[in-house]
Design a protein that fits this description.
Blueprint: H1 12-18, H2 59-72, E1 76-80, H3 83-91, E2 99-103, H4 108-119, E3 124-128, H5 133-140, E4 146-150, H6 162-171, E5 175-179, E6 197-201, E7 215-219, H7 222-235, H8 241-251, H9 254-274, E8 278-282, H10 292-298, E9 305-310, H11 314-323, E10 328-329, E11 339-341, H12 353-359, E12 365-369, H13 375-390
Parallel strand pairs: 2-3, 2-4, 4-5, 5-6, 10-11
Antiparallel strand pairs: 1-7, 6-7, 8-9, 9-12, 11-12
Helix pairs in contact: 2-8, 3-4, 9-13, 11-13
Bound molecules: pyridoxal-5'-phosphate.
Pyridoxal-5'-phosphate binds next to helix 3 and helix 4.
């Protein structure tokens, strides 16, 4: 066989579509095999092979971690059993005196986890509006160990300027972890903007098919990646090989899905903004969005998530969510199918009314995850649902 030419620097689209393709040495399988074995043979006395035990390492899971590390521009990644396990992997290494600065409008599960660990005196936490520079500066004066960032935020789609935040946090001696779940590396790459870690709920856009719960942490350098990998083995929260295999399969189409889904999202946001029964639309792609300029600069698109406030009361909300047909009333996001959620009674119910009010999450706010359906079907579904409110 002719020798292959030297490997070029590959584009992210190519990594997503083809990392690990035609790399099987046993049977020359084109699609990477699924290794379920929990244990691996030692070739001889005191001679470990590349793998020993499945909690510590698995070839299928490693293929997914490599692909994610490359896509995010990090030097290594750990694949965990859920997005929460990924965030907790970072928190689990902290000590009683370590302070975590988190967004006041962070993912409900992240807030619950931080509060639970703080209540048990395993760390300290303070929640701030990270888009408010004086509030952030005051929090950084307390010398945090870790600053957790979510941008766009959930569900209000507030944008945080990652690069200056990282510079400020580093100057204060803190590490920065960005939850990139809402955009995926197809749209935003926080490590290039200065982040030390990127965390993901791979459950969402990375897998994209609403059939796997999973997570990942990507680290900027090899030392941090090795430390996390070791800690993941200590606590035993690695993702299953089958889940990794499915997620890698989903990842193949990430760029094509994101492209199409954000196109649909822009059409939906534009439609809603013009509708008389809609009071406000939160989508960074709209000029009216306060984070539009930053999002244009730091993202390659505006993502497929948006939220909006209905002009009306909770009665109107009930009527609307129960009348739509193409959108499904369900939590989660990032799948090929469009979902509709009511944060106050669903994703952000646990947060409590007071905290929701502080974060600006009203009872008439609805969140949409836009899928791959025909644009016209999505718009017609919303149009018909909104028409029910004025009948
Ligand atoms: C879903 C989600 C998580 C948690 O991930 P799981 O896979 O459900 O554990 C964390 N952060 C964000 C932004 C999410 O959307």
């Amino acid at each position: 066989m002719t020798e292959k030419h030297p490997e070029p620097e590959l584009h992210r689209e190519t990594i997503a579509a083809a990392h690990g393709v035609a790399a099987d040495r046993a049977f020359r399988a084109v699609s990477p095999p699924l290794y379920l074995s929990t244990t691996y043979e030692f070739p001889g006395y005191d001679q470990p092979g590349p793998y020993e035990y499945g909690r510590a390492g698995n070839p299928t899971r490693d293929l997914l971690s490599e692909a994610l590390a490359k896509l995010e521009g990090g030097s290594g990644a750990v694949v965990t059993s859920s997005g929460m396990a990924a965030i907790d992997l970072l928190l689990g290494r902290l000590c009683v005196d370590d302070l975590v600065v988190a967004p006041h409008d962070c993912y409900g599960g992240t807030m619950r986890l931080l509060k639970a660990r703080a209540q048990r005196r395993q760390l300290q936490v303070c929640f701030v509006d990270q888009a408010d520079p004086p509030a952030l500066a005051a929090a950084l004066e307390r010398r945090p160990t870790l600053v957790l960032v979510e941008t766009p935020s959930n569900p209000l789609m507030r944008i945080v300027d990652i690069a200056p935040l990282c510079a400020m946090a580093h100057a204060a001696g803190a590490e920065v972890a960005v939850d990139n779940t809402f955009l995926s590396p197809a749209v935003q790459r926080p490590i290039a903007l200065g982040a030390d870690y990127v965390v993901h709920s791979t459950t969402k856009f990375l897998n994209g098919h609403s059939d796997v719960i999973g997570g990942a942490v990507i680290a900027v350098n090899a030392d941090r990646a090795a430390e996390l990998r070791q800690w993941c083995n200590v606590v035993g929260t690695a993702g299953s090989p089958f889940d990794a295999w499915l997620t890698l399969r989903g990842l193949r189409t990430l760029f094509a899905r994101m492209d199409r889904q954000q196109g649909n999202a822009m059409a939906v946001a534009t439609f809603l903004e013009r509708h008389p029964t809609v009071a406000k639309v939160h989508y960074p792609g709209l000029r009216s969005h306060p984070g539009h300029a930053i999002a244009t600069r730091q993202q390659d698109g505006f993502g497929a998530m948006l939220s909006f406030e209905l002009a009306g009361d909770t009665g109107a909300i009930k009527k609307f969510v129960e009348s739509v047909r193409v959108f499904t009333l369900a939590e989660s996001l990032g799948g090929v199918e469009s979902l509709l959620a009511h944060p106050a009674t669903m994703t952000h119910a646990d947060m409590g009314e007071e905290a929701r009010k502080t974060a600006g999450i009203s009872d008439t706010l609805l969140r949409l995850s836009i899928g791959l359906e025909a644009t016209e079907d999505l718009l017609r579904d919303l149009e018909s649902g909104l028409a029910m409110l004025t009948d």
